[in-house]
């Protein structure tokens, strides 16, 4: 008999459900459920409590960690009594990707970037054979070869008529061009080559470009009017403006630079953020070309994203963790989450909600343009 007066028999467990999702509130009362229930069975229980005719899939957390076993196995592993009330927080689970939208590319896909403000139906995928593929929904509209070497990463800036597109190349250069639907402008080359690039970024107003990679330096370039020359209606296309030398090089990282992001003017004016395998995130003053802040993040950084509404940063790491940072504070302990998989958390991106984050860990499947090679997990920032 528990303190609440409910009898718990063998093969049963005492749980309570809670959520921060306004549309899925349930009474926070203690319930006796079969102890062999896992995520799917618990999701059925919550749907019954909600009275949903169309079932909604949920994930469950115990003390901030995703439940990946049955209740009885969790209690056994953590040496807990079945008479102890297990507090379960439920969040929305992602559905499996639809295989009908899979596009088979001739080479490995290195990155995918939206070409419009979210929600976007236009996006571009870079490949390791040096080509970029532009999609509208599930239909490929353009395939253009940018370089003889592979493309490791990409960035895009939506414009009135299309978008500015920037790719980081394994030959140590950046390639820039303008995209308008299924039409592309001439390709501009920035840099002289050398160590492979692994990250690229565009400033909010499109006046600055940045690239970084195995040289450990962050190179910053000014854009010229011809850098993103518009697609010409005729065959006589204006030549793009190539730049050999950057405006300046930012030195400080000791390992490969894996992520770059220009701060928005209303949030982090005149700043550039960079992440690296040296287990740090640096903030650069692009007016003074100097580092103003250096956060040690304890793990190699594979990517990061900045919350568009709050002064928060999320970093993804090689061990499958995602860490959250308050960028207003000095060095401090982060709040960590887990994708619930073995392997790297390959990327993280902010959602439409101020508190929403999507992080993905990808086990490479090869040439498919899809999310599903690993795990994509939504987080709520608290």
UniProtKB/TrEMBL annotation:
SUPFAM superfamilies: WD40 repeat-like. Keywords: Nucleus, Repeat, WD repeat. InterPro entries: NLE, WD40/YVTN_repeat-like_dom_sf, WD40_repeat_CS, WD40_repeat_dom_sf, WD40_rpt. It comes from the Eukaryota. It is found in: Nucleus, Nucleolus. Residues 14-75 form the NLE domain. This is NLE domain-containing protein. It comes from Effrenium voratum.
